[in-house]
Structure formats: C-alpha cells, structure tokens
Amino acid sequence: MKGGPDMADQSHPGTPLQPGQAAPDFSLPATPDQHLSLSEMRGAPVILAFYPADWSPVCGDELALFNEVLPEFHRFGARLVGISTDGVWCHAAFAGERKLHFPLLADFEPKGEVARRYGVYRPQEGIAERALFVIDSEGVIRWSYVSPLGLNPGADGILDALDDMTARAHNTGAAA
Questions:
Q1: Domain map of the chain by residue range?
Q2: pTM of structure
C-alpha cells in the first residue's frame, strides 16, 4: 500500500487535545490587517469555538447563541474567539450580518493549521470540527468537547467549565 502511516493521518481527523494539556499558541488574522494570538489573551480564560463554516445554518445558530451568552462569558472574565477555515472577508461579512461581538479568526492559509494543532481538522472536507476548548489564564486546556457537525452544542458545557475553573481558583486561594 502506498503512502504508509502518513497517509492515514491525513485522511482522518486527529485526536482532540484534552484537559490538562497546554493549549498551542497561534496567531491568526482577525481582519485583513490585524492578527490575534492566544498568547495576547493570556491572563484571562479563553473560549475557542472551532466551527466548520460561515453561513451554514448550524454554525450561524451556534455563533448567534454564543453572541447572546457573551455577557455570561464576560462575567467569568472570559474571551470568546471563533475559528474556521474561512477567509477574513467571509468572516467580516458573516460577523456583520449576524451582528457578532467577538472575533472570528481565519485559519485559512496554511489551511486548517491551527485546527490541526488542536486535533480538530477534517482534511477530507477541508474544515474544522465543531469543537470547543476552554483554556485557563495560564494557557492550559480545562475543558474540550467535539460535537457532531450537524448539532449545535449549546453553551452549557462552556459555562460549567468556567464555573468549575472559578470554584477551583477560589478553593486554591482559600487553601493558600
């Protein structure tokens, strides 16, 4: 058989990064002339919402829900960032149409590089999985979830993870 093990790696999504692992840093375009990196957001919790595509019905519903829940995320001091393999101009049009109040980052070229690092790239379709990562202020993944592509995962898991991180921080602070 030609290709060997590397071929298999390219035909199947990777294993999503798990809680306790360090979140790989990245810098991706947020607009045609601005990049945002994970390291810039260090010091506060970060929610990474990988999604397959702008303009798809489930993605639109998912990101609209996150937009509505944004004040709750902010209550925990968390920043939300959406990431897909769409380009910055597509993101700009989509975010404007949906009135989104959080950045959408373009994992466009090299296509899906950040999604690959997080183990959530689907090479056969050229898209990211519908995956969520909650990262603590130190850059450690505290919760992750991969949802079926056709299913909006909602925000409850994210809110529970943020609540758990807050409780853990209070318990650690009380013990010190």
A1: 13-175
A2: 0.90
C-alpha dist (Å) from residue 66 to 2, 39, 147, 169: 44, 22, 15, 24
CATH number of 13-175: 3.40.30.10
Q: Is 90 a catalytic residue?
A: no
Residue 122, Ramachandran bin (φ over 0: left; ψ between -120 and 50: alpha; else beta): beta
Asked if residues 90 and 133 have their Cβ atoms less than 8 Å apart, the reply is no
The catalytically annotated residue of 48, 59, 80, 158 is 59
DSSP character string of 85-97: SS-HHHHHHHHHH
What's the pLDDT tens digit per position in 81-125?
A: 999 999 999 999 999 999 999 999 999 999 999 999 999 999 999
